[in-house]
Model the fold of this input.
Amino acid sequence: MRSRLLVLFCISATVRPLMASCGAASCPLDLNALNRPAAGHFAAELSFEYIDQDQPRVGTRAVAVGAVPAEHDQVRTINRGASLLLRYAASDRLLFSATVPYVSHSHLRIEGGRPERWNLSGVGDVTLQMRGRIAEFDSIRRTALWGFAGVKLPAGAHDLTNPEGEIGEIPIQPGTGSTDAIVGLAFESGILRQTSMRGALGSVTLIPLFATIQLRRNTTGAQNYRVGNELQLNAGTVYPLRDRTQLLLQANAKVRGRDTSADLEDHLFTGGRYLFLSPGLRFDAGHGAAWYAMLQVPLYQHVNGIQLTAKRNLVTGVQMRF
Done:
């Protein structure tokens, strides 16, 4: 029981197409925090997210569709994604992971007074990552500094079309056609507190804490399109409520640079700065299995030009250690 609560957080990014003028998005969450495998073992996670972007925004201000003159008016994008994450712990200091996403984007825009629709879905780009412990400062509170590095490979389709045969923009394609690099640092620790839980140390439980910084540098991919570089800052904790139920809480910040595209207008409507609060619950089903759900609420959104944004994001998933 106690060992399940003394889980340390780690970052292992799940890369999907990100926010752009056409509204494709993913949640900036550490979805892998509660499922670290023991040395010599594996862990698997299947996560699902739902993001309904139906609110055009200029800067920080919500506006109506068509508020800014453009070649076409973005109306709505519904993003659905599923990601399979597999991890292996070569030791208690070194972990490897692979993420395979499946993404689905339903997009509506108006061009020349005529509605245009895209329903694009498929396997997305695969991400491989390695994470290593750089230093340990306190073995009781598990205070440590970790470093991680990864690569996103161009495995997803990037030339899907709508019913009229028009190829969709890169941000709503399953893949980008680019090879991108990911680097970052994670600081982990914890605080000892009296809780309702009981274990080897009585009712004293280690409440884990984490903070991470991650940079993703993107290269030019399909359609001569380059997704903007991204910086993420994440912090969070987990607090035991009952023997099998824990409260999850994360704060997530993201800074996205503008994309680079041959279309001089579209790339101006990309990138921005975002801050989210992400509460949730996790239920331990026993035998290494767990289920979690998180609601991500935007506290601050500042976009370049006019972009579609969401009022909330939903994420849920199942985890297994073996």
Remarks:
- Helices lie at 2-5.
